[in-house]
Structure formats: structure tokens, C-alpha cells
Design the sequence.
């Protein structure tokens, strides 16, 4: 949650806050740990793989995560919210599933729910499943295992049980589908360094690291060099019915914040990751003519201090809130092109000799806050600098107050009370008042330390936004432990925001500057050394024991709940068009032309945004066909169709609008709305799009 702000309202008197929150209902959620004997169900008849993409776009109304109180509720979507599952089985008794989501972060509660539901069918244990995230700041949230982030990550408060159930069931169905669709498989692993797509947004912290040299704050290009440039990938091919192996999926990672789209955005979306994912999926399927959809599960890596390499707007106190879809698309497609190149290069390295290993250890880090010679704080604390936000994406007005603006002399302690585990962090709301406003038990406390070995690649899913150097230290420790055990991998990398969310983790050196990232490192200045030591011990135990799965026998949560999704309504009216297709012209260089049309349809609870709804067709030789432009289908599973809920109507109906961005000249077109709740397909009037000095829509009689 790169721009999480602790709400300014939390600084009001505790009595008033208690009155505000006392009415929130609390729900107990109990999830049973799957029986360890399920592992015997894992096939040992040769390596196999399966992959599937499932849609987890909710109905309108869910709060969107990442921009906290400034974020909107989702009115619709443009680029869907997906969960992409890659299931691997080495044929030797070990399987795993990696799930990439377009969510702001994963959730330990979500991971537990999914693990419990798929265990009996698939033989996967909870430690064999990693749920990662691309960290979109325009994705629905409020499904976490703790009250703190259910309260502060979005503009809505508390857990939405219905969304948790929807997401858990959809991802579980996806894992089971991938398991059931498995075929004989080959894989290849690789890495490619790519530059020009991310930049270091906290360079003044990064240069303080003891093992960083040759980086000058006076060098305008330094922020583009002091990055994690690594694009990691596992390519997966499976055997087609004709006996040939063809591409099925890629599980990959690139370290960049999904903040190309800013606060005012009103629709769910996967930000720049959507373009990189879709371009590979479309390109590879078309090139290899696969009989299955190709899946590109692209997650973020060590993105804690990695901003998109877009036009920089400086550290101004107004913040920068322009929504620039064109820039997001350009950057995302650039990353997608690099991913396609890496995918193609791995074709010659595919092998059916697959070895998988997993290790998992679940710890309450408040109860186990010491490891080796490292001790983190027993209690979490939020720093002043969290309130003002991160560089470029500042909270208006608050960032003008020196106590909140990260990195200055007043935002951190200098003389007194700066030697403890929280170091020189100034506590938001003061150290004596914060525990009253934010009970220590409301913070996240349980971490699943996990290690996934896929041939010569090791993935370290962590529930923190790791800075570049923090991730480097974790990976280096794991690499050295495995090497000491005679099993050195070629690649080791950290997947941030995975299996939960704990804010940030910076190095001790970065922490002392108390930029936003340090202020949001909840458990203090030794968080990265602690995580590094725990992951190192996990790697050592894996080498020694061959298997590590130390998880709780039962997962129990008591969480405050709320309701954001629309109520069920009986829609008795009939679908109809409310207006004819109309042109809306771009107002500025960063905006896009679009054609819009409005219609009446079933209520928001029944519109089913997770199922196909809108597409554009064009006439070819007198026949209507789905429109495809440069290999990209023009429908709501692509990235140029937007759908919005507008308002409720009589008879349980509602008004909606769909927009076709970047329309194409030279043809006859129509919108097609797919059936819903026994309501028939709806087809718009035919129109053309005209370019030139006076672009716009002309209806065709």
C-alpha cells in the first residue's frame, strides 16, 4: 500500500473515536488447517502443469486500496481484476501453486481460506500455495486478517465478508481448474535486467546503505540506476493433443509500484501490470496457436522504493493526481515487450526434468520477536511520515507540515528516545496516545515465512513492501544458506505483498532517514535483519530436513466487519438503451477519445462484473464479427473498454455506461451487451468513428 495514510480523523479524542467505531460488528472466522495426509494425493507419474486465469472483479461499491481515505469506491472497471494460477507438479511427489492477483496486496486470511478449500482435491498443503499481488492501487481491498489495514488501507472501514468469500471461492476454483487441466509439462527459468521502467523514489534513503557506493544525489540519472532491474520468469509449456509442447504460462516478477494511475481514478483496474500481462497472453497464444488461453502471472518484486519511470512531478505539497491512462499503457506495454522477449528466449532451455521444493513456517512475530542476534519491536508503531504519504503522491496539506513530511529534521527524533527498536521514528499521534487510538492487537502479527524452489529458482514470498536493498539482503542470505548445504540456486528473489500485508520493510540505514517507507516499517528499524534471519533459518532447515511445514493447526480471527457490496434486488424491468452512441473527445494531450453509450440493466448485485459483459463488433463483408485491433480484442477483458454503474432505477433496474477508448476509424461498429438474468442480449445502434479535424460519431441508418 505504497500511499497508505493513517486517517487524520484518528488524531481526534479517543472517546469520540470509540463512539464512532463501537457500533462495528465483530465476526469470528475459523479456518481449519488441512490434514497433512493430503500430500499423499500428489501425483508421482511424471511432471505436469496447469494454468488458468479467473476473474475476481467485484460488483460496484468496494473501496479501492492503496490511496487510503483519498481513494474512491469502485464504480466499475477498466482492465479487470484477475487471479492467475500456475500449478506445477514435479512428478516426484511435490506440487505447488503460485497465484498472482491484481490486488493491492494478498491476505493471510485469504491464503488460509484458499488452502483449506483446495487441499482435499489437489493434495496441496498450505505451505505449497503462495498468493502474490501486483500491488494495484485501484483494486478492491478490505479482506485482510487484521483490523488495522481493514481500517486504513481504503476509504472504507473493516472487513467485507462477502468480498472475502467471493475472492476465496474464485481463487480456489481456479486452483482446482488448473489442477484438473494439468498436462505433461516442461519448464525453463530465466532473468533479464531491464532499465527505463522504474526509478528509485527514495534515493536519499538508498544512498545511506553501507553496501551502496557510486550513487550521487547530484546525478539526475541516479534514480534510474539505483533500481532493481530484474525481470524474473518461469516459462511453462505443456503437451498438446498432437503431442507437441506449446506455451501455457509464465510466472514472472518485476519490481515497480503499480501507481501509474493516481487517486482520482474511479474504476477498478490492474494499472500498468494489465498491459504487460495481456500483451504476452495475446501475443504468445496467437504466435503458437495454442488450444488454451495463455496465462501471464506477473507480480511485483522488491518495489518498496520503486516508482514507475513516468514523468516526474516533484515532491510538491499539493500531490499529483492526474489520471494518465496513456502513460500507464505505454509503460506497461514496454514491460510486456521485454517479458515477451524473455519468454521467447527461454524456449531453447525447456526441460521436463523438474524439481520442486517448498518450506513454510508460520510465526506470530510479536511472540517470537527474537531470532539469532536480532530483536524487533514487540509492538507495531506508525510513524508521522505515513500521514503525508510517499514522494510524489503526497497527502495534500498534511505534507506541508514538517513533522509529517518525510526525510526532514523535524520528522524524526534526534536526541531522546531514539535508541530503542523503533529507533528515531516519531510516532503518529505521539507514542503515549497511539496505542489508545490504535490498539496493538489490531496490527498484523502473523507471518508465513515461505520458500518455493522451482528448479534453479527460489521465490521468497513476504507480506511486506520490501525496498530494493532489503530484498537483496534477504535473497543473499537464502542463497548463502542453500549454497552452504550444497544446493545453490541460480536465482533467488523476493515477491512483496504476498500471503498478507505488513506495510514496509527497509534496511536499518534507510530507516534512520524516516522517509515514508521507514515510517511505515511497523516493527522497527531491525525488521529487515529479522526477516533475513528467519528466511535464512528456513532455508537452512529445508536443506537439513528436506521438508518444512510448521503451520498452525487452526486459524482463528476476530475482525470488525462492514458491508460495501450492493444488496440483492429483484430486477423486474427490461433492458433498454438510454441513449445512442456518443463521442467524447480528449481534453488534453494525456486523455483519450472515446465512444460512450448508456443502458438500463439488472441491479448492481446481479450485473456480474466478473463475467463477460461488453464487446464491440464490426461489419466485415456484410457479417458482424468481434473486433480485434492489432491482436487485441476490443471487449471488456481487454484494456480499452470501460464499464460504469451510474445510478439505480425503478423496478430494481440500474443505469450503466460503457466506453470504448481509442476508437478506430474506417468501419461500422456496434456495442453488444451480453445476457444477464434471463435478460436477452442487447445490441446498440450502428455507428462509425470519424477522424480528422472534427472527429466524432456518426450513426448509420
Sequence:
Amino acid at each position: 500500500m505504497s500511499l497508505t495514510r493513517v486517517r487524520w480523523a484518528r488524531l481526534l479524542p479517543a472517546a469520540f473515536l470509540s463512539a464512532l467505531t463501537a457500533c462495528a460488528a465483530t465476526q469470528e472466522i475459523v479456518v481449519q488447517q488441512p490434514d497433512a495426509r493430503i500430500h499423499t494425493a500428489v501425483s508421482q507419474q511424471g511432471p505436469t502443469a496447469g494454468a488458468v486465469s479467473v476473474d475476481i472483479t467485484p460488483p460496484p461499491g468496494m473501496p479501492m486500496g492503496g490511496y487510503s481515505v483519498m481513494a474512491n469506491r469502485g464504480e466499475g472497471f477498466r482492465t479487470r481484476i484477475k487471479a492467475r494460477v500456475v500449478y506445477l507438479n514435479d512428478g516426484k511427489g511435490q506440487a505447488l501453486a503460485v497465484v498472482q492477483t491484481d490486488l493491492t496486496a494478498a491476505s493471510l486470511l485469504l491464503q488460509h481460506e484458499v488452502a483449506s478449500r483446495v487441499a482435499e482435491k489437489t493434495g496441496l498443503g498450505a505451505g505449497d500455495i503462495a498468493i502474490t499481488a501486483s500491488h494495484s492501487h485501484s483494486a478492491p481491498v478490505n479482506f485482510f486478517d487484521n483490523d488495522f489495514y481493514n481500517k486504513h488501507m481504503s476509504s472504507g472501514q473493516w472487513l467485507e465478508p462477502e468480498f472475502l468469500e467471493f475472492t476465496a471461492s474464485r481463487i480456489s476454483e481456479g486452483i482446482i481448474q488448473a489442477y484438473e487441466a494439468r498436462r505433461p509439462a516442461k519448464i525453463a527459468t530465466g532473468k533479464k535486467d531491464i532499465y527505463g521502467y522504474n526509478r528509485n523514489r527514495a534515493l536519499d534513503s538508498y544512498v545511506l546503505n553501507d553496501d551502496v557506493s557510486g550513487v550521487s544525489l547530484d546525478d539526475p540519472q541516479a534514480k534510474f540506476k539505483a533500481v532493481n532491474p530484474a525481470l524474473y520468469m518461469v516459462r511453462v509449456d505443456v503437451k498438446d493433443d498432437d503431442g507437441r509442447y506449446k506455451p501455457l504460462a509464465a510466472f514472472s516478477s518485476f519490481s515497480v509500484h503499480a501507481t501509474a494511475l493516481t487517486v482520482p481514478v474511479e474504476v477498478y483496474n490492474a494499472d500498468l501490470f494489465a498491459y504487460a500481462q495481456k500483451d504476452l497472453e495475446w501475443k504468445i497464444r496467437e504466435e503458437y496457436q495454442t488450444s488454451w488461453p495463455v496465462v501471464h502471472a506477473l507480480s511485483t518484486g522488491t518495489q518498496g522504493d520503486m516508482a514507475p519511470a513516468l514523468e516526474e512531478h516533484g515532491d510538491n505539497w499539493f500531490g499529483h493526481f492526474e489520471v494518465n491512462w496513456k502513460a500507464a499503457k505505454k509503460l506497461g506495454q514496454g514491460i510486456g515487450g521485454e517479458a515477451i522477449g524473455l519468454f521467447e528466449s527461454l524456449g531453447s532451455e525447456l526441460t521436463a526434468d523438474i524439481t520442486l521444493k517448498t518450506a513454510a513456517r508460520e510465526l506470530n512475530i510479536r511472540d517470537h520477536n527474537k531470532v539469532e542476534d536480532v530483536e524487533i519491536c514487540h509492538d507495531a508503531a506508525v510513524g508521522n511520515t505515513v500521514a503525508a504519504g510517499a514522494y510524489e503522491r503526497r497527502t495534500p496539506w498534511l505534507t506541508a507540515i514538517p513533522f509529517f513530511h518525510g526525510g526532514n529534521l523535524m520528522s524524526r527524533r534526534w536526541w531522546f528516545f531514539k535508541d530503542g527498536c523503533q529507533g528515531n521514528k516519531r510516532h503518529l499521534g505521539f507514542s503515549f496516545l497511539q496505542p489508545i487510538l490504535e490498539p496493538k492487537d489490531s496490527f498484523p502479527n502473523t507471518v508465513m515465512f515461505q520458500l518455493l524452489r522451482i528448479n534453479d529458482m527460489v521465490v521468497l514470498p513476504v507480506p511486506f513492501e520490501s525496498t530494493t536493498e532489503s530484498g537483496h539482503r534477504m535473497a543473499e542470505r537464502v542463497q548463502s544458506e542453500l549454497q552452504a548445504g550444497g544446493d545453490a540456486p541460480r536465482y533467488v528473489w523476493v515477491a512483496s505483498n504476498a500471503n498478507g500485508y505488513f506495510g514496509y520493510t527497509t534496511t536499518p540505514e534507510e530507516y534512520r532517514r524516516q522517509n515514508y517507507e521507514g515510517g511505515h516499517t511497523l516493527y522497527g528499524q531491525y525488521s529487515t535483519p529479522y526477516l533475513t534471519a528467519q528466511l535464512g533459518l528456513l532455508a537452512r532447515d529445508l536443506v537439513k530436513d528436506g521438508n518444512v511445514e510448521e503451520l498452525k493447526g487452526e486459524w482463528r480471527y476476530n475482525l470488525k466487519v462492514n458491508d460495501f457490496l450492493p444488496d440483492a434486488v429483484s430486477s423486474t424491468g427490461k433492458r433498454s438503451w438510454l441513449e445512442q452512441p456518443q463521442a467524447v473527445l480528449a481534453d488534453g494531450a494525456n486523455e483519450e477519445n472515446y465512444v460512450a453509450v448508456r443502458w438500463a440493466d439488472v441491479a448492481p448485485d446481479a450485473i456480474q462484473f466478473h463475467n463477460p459483459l461488453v464487446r464491440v463488433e464490426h461489419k466485415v463483408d456484410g457479417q458482424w464479427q468481434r473486433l480485434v485491433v492489432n491482436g487485441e480484442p476490443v471487449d471488456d477483458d481487454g484494456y480499452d473498454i470501460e464499464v460504469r454503474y451510474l445510478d439505480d432505477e425503478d423496478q430494481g433496474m440500474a443505469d450503466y455506461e460503457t466506453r470504448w477508448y481509442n476508437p478506430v476509424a474506417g468501419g461500422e461498429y456496434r456495442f453488444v451487451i451480453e445476457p444477464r438474468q434471463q435478460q436477452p442480449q442487447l445490441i446498440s445502434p450502428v455507428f462509425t468513428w470519424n477522424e480528422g479535424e472534427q472527429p466524432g460519431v456518426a450513426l448509420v441508418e
